Amino acid sequence: MRLSRYFLPVLKENPAEAQIVSHRLMLRAGMIKQQTAGIYSWLPLGFKVLKRIEQIVHEEQERAGHIALLMPTLQPADLWRESGRYEDYGQEMLRIKDRHGRDMLYGPTNEEMITDIFRSHVGSYKDLPLTLYHVQWKFRDEVRPRFGVMRGREFYMKDGYTFDVDKASALHAYNRHMVAYLRTYERMGLTAIPMRADSGPIGGDDTHEFLVLAETGESEVFYDQAVTELTLGERAVDFDNRDEVAAICDEFTTLYARTDETHDEALFNAVPEDRRRVGRGIEVGQIFYFGTKYSEAMGATVVTQDGNRVPVEMGSHGIGVSRLLGAIIEASHDDKGIIWPEGVTPFHAGIVNLKQGDAEADAACESLYKALAGAGLEALYDDRSERAGAKFATMDLIGLPWRITVGPRGLAKGVVELTSRRSGESVEMSPEAAVARLV
Ligand code: ATP
Ligand code: MG
Ligand code: MG
Ligand code: MG
Fold first, then answer.
1. Which of 286, 288, 324 has the most ligand 1 atoms within 8 A of CB, as the residue to mutate?
2. ∠324-325-330 over CA atoms, to 5°?
3. pTM over 0.80
4. How many helices (H) and strands (E) does the chain have?
5. How many CA atoms lie within 13 A of 241 on its CB side?
6. CA distances (Å), 98 to each of 1, 113, 140, 141, in order?
7. Among 315, 319, 285, 323, which residue's Cα sits nearest to residue 209?
8. Which residues' Cβ are closer than 6 Å to ligand 1?
């Protein structure tokens, strides 16, 4: 992409309404625009990152054997009357009437709708296990929408639903989600710690939230420092192997890590004192096993191998896709701007032409741009006639992991400069070597 033809409305001034750094930087970097409280347009740069995050979510769900579909944002109230949640959900639910006076709602989550899909088409243990998920916009009329996309009213969420014939199989589905989520967050450059959580109004027996540590997080967290050092890394996981998946979950949930809702002072005090930490965290996902709560209420049953008809065992599993942009920036920025982890960066590299209009510099930038594209890397080429300082400031603000700086002085020596956004370190090398370094 050539910056002269892109739409990147960066702000020079700090927007007064932004209280936390990620919100400030997303506005300044021209990623989002608020349309009304808690509702945002996703401008091109923000949209690109949102799609990269969504893509990682899809890839890791697919790896675990889960199946994507798409349910609508608007739902009929009648489904929610069946589960009893239409009355219970309260003011967070946006209720709408259509022209015929029928009660509709903008979905805050999809347990009812997926249970309806299931009961319409599945009736035998032979079709299980089954995990269906989608990534779709949700609406919750939050009392206090704030911190930009972190607590929006309209937000983008991955929500997956598991259907199993018995509890053991449902817990395997739960564990599969935990492991898939661990890899999902790691690929985004995040340390997201599974913490035992309170099941709250959805109701359930087993639930963990995934928290990214950040001072601006809304949850108070208590944890053993050692838990932050665990990583899944490149391990190959056989998601069908119950014991293997369960062992990974044990590894990540044995050390103490809880939110204030489930915190237990006595257990926490058993953690060696030098490793005890109290901090704050951002909830970027949650997994739930809730058994037959919805299947019983809505008549979603399956025939077992011995011919009995039983309500199907269920769980639901969510990732805050749009909130993750905020969480990633909270975890990865400096005073100049965002520092995107490679896994989610909107462009792989920026090219800064120090002397736009200089035939040699222009030609070198063009050929670098093409070489990167040829290697499958998308670059943002700053081809505007701006001062070098302004170009650097924009690149630092939008946080691309690499910057290639091209100018007549370097080209006279046959070199360009490759700068890492994270370390700030610059190295001179030939344009070919710079491309090879990024591939
Ligand atoms: P919170 O405690 O922050 O209100 P929640 O527990 O109500 O979140 P869930 O029902 O668990 O949310 O939804 C799954 C995920 O969706 C959450 O872990 C979070 O990452 C994301 N999410 C929930 N509410 C919002 C929101 N208002 N704006 C952006 N993301 C949200
Ligand atoms: Mg909530
Ligand atoms: Mg919560
Ligand atoms: Mg939650």
1. 286
2. 90
3. yes
4. 14, 23
5. 8
6. 43, 18, 19, 19
7. 285
8. 109, 140, 142, 151-152, 155, 157, 283-286, 318, 320, 322-323
Evaluate whether 357 touches 203 at the Cβ level (below 8 Å).
Answer: no
Q: To which residue do tokens 């269920």 refer?
A: 314
Nearest ligand 1 atom to the CA of 324 is 20
The residues, ordered by sequence, that sit 6+ positions from 311 with a Cβ below 8 Å of its Cβ are 292, 295, 296, 300, 301
Q: Which ligand is nearest to the CA of 325?
A: 1
pLDDT in tens, 112-169: 999 999 999 999 999 999 999 999 999 999 999 999 999 999 999 999 999 999 999 9
Tell me, what's the ipTM? 0.99
Look up residue 124 and give its DSSP letter.
Answer: B
Q: Which residue's alpha carbon is at the smallest distance from atom 1 of ligand 1?
A: 283
Written as six digits, the tokens of 437 are 């370094």
For the CA atoms of the chain, what is the radius of gyration? Answer: 24
The CA 218 to ligand 2 mean position distance, Å, reads: 11
Q: Which of 317, 318, 264, 281 lies closest to 193, judged by CA?
A: 281
